[in-house]
UniProtKB/TrEMBL annotation:
<dbReference type="GO" id="GO:0035556">
    <property type="term" value="P:intracellular signal transduction"/>
</dbReference>
<dbReference type="Pfam" id="PF00017">
    <property type="entry name" value="SH2"/>
</dbReference>
<dbReference type="InterPro" id="IPR036860">
    <property type="entry name" value="SH2_dom_sf"/>
</dbReference>
<dbReference type="InterPro" id="IPR051751">
    <property type="entry name" value="Immunoreceptor_sig_adapters"/>
</dbReference>
<dbReference type="GO" id="GO:0007169">
    <property type="term" value="P:cell surface receptor protein tyrosine kinase signaling pathway"/>
</dbReference>
<protein>
    <submittedName>
        <fullName>B-cell linker protein</fullName>
    </submittedName>
</protein>
<dbReference type="GO" id="GO:0005737">
    <property type="term" value="C:cytoplasm"/>
</dbReference>
<keyword id="KW-0727">SH2 domain</keyword>
<dbReference type="InterPro" id="IPR000980">
    <property type="entry name" value="SH2"/>
</dbReference>
<feature type="domain" description="SH2">
    <location>
        <begin position="9"/>
        <end position="116"/>
    </location>
</feature>
Length: 119
């Protein structure tokens, strides 16, 4: 179990546009939520949606079948892996998360600070 279902930051039925709209409305750097990925792929079950610097980042959360762990973004060597999605969120509430803008090839970082609830 990813440990998401009882969490305030988990927006189960939320689609990408609803999540992005909610984060734009919050307008606070470090606002975030986790939603189900639109692709319904078992290898990428969730998406971490983060607001920073007037932009919304959709960061894929991957499930690694071989180790039954979760990781963020594209696979890379030496990546951090976690036992649950909740552990990813808790970790990045304490340590900065690197946000990569693939269109402009820029990097930012922020901690996950403000939970956004989608009604």
């Amino acid at each position: 179990d990813a440990g998401v279902h009882s969490k305030a930051w988990y927006a189960a039925t939320c689609d990408r546009k609803t999540a992005e709209d909610a984060l734009h409305q919050s307008n606070k750097d470090g606002s975030f939520l986790v939603r189900k990925s639109s692709g319904q792929d078992s290898r990428q079950p969730y998406t971490l949606v983060v607001f920073y610097n007037r932009r919304v980042y959709n960061v894929p959360i991957r499930f690694i079948e071989s180790t039954r762990q979760y990781a963020l973004g594209r696979e890379k060597s030496g990546e951090e892996r976690f036992g649950s999605v909740a552990e990813i969120v808790e970790n990045h509430q304490r340590t900065s998360l690197v946000l990569i803008d693939s269109q402009n090839n820029t990097k930012d970082s922020t901690k996950l600070k403000h939970i956004v609830r989608v009604s």
